[in-house]
Automatic annotation (TrEMBL):
<dbReference type="InterPro" id="IPR011006">
    <property type="entry name" value="CheY-like_superfamily"/>
</dbReference>
<protein>
    <submittedName>
        <fullName>Response regulator</fullName>
    </submittedName>
</protein>
<dbReference type="GO" id="GO:0000160">
    <property type="term" value="P:phosphorelay signal transduction system"/>
</dbReference>
<dbReference type="Pfam" id="PF00072">
    <property type="entry name" value="Response_reg"/>
</dbReference>
<dbReference type="InterPro" id="IPR001789">
    <property type="entry name" value="Sig_transdc_resp-reg_receiver"/>
</dbReference>
Length: 117
């Protein structure tokens, strides 16, 4: 498998999403889209053109990103879980996924994406 190039960002904090976009650009990746909630992310996945995703575990309004992870897994699209670690419990179905710890660094993003393939 070749390294993923088109990355979906699921992040509810606009500044963090923009920082991830910058990191991906520097790493030679393209942003396949951004979403800040479960419904937007699921719509984006249905549109296609995604090689991988970075999923913030906790989204605005108490939403969890597990339905997004389930949809990505069903579509065979690898993803990284982004977490602040403060008690973020990872669903058993996704515990084997790479974890990207907050605060993000470019090296951390690069390493997490490299674990995908």
């Amino acid at each position: 498998m070749t390294a993923p190039q088109r990355i979906l960002i699921v992040e509810d904090e606009p500044l963090i999403a923009m920082m991830l976009e910058d990191f991906l650009d520097i790493l030679g990746k393209s942003v396949a889209g951004t979403a800040d909630c479960v419904s937007d992310a699921l719509s984006r996945i249905e549109e296609g053109g995604i090689d991988a995703a970075i999923l913030d575990v906790n989204l605005r309004g108490g939403e969890k990103s597990w339905p997004i992870g389930d949809a990505l897994a069903a579509a065979g699209i690898p993803f990284v879980l982004a977490t602040g670690g403060s008690g973020d419990a990872v669903e058993p179905a996704h515990r084997s996924r790479p974890v990207l710890a907050k605060p993000f660094t470019m090296d951390g993003v690069e390493t997490a994406l490299a674990e995908l393939g």
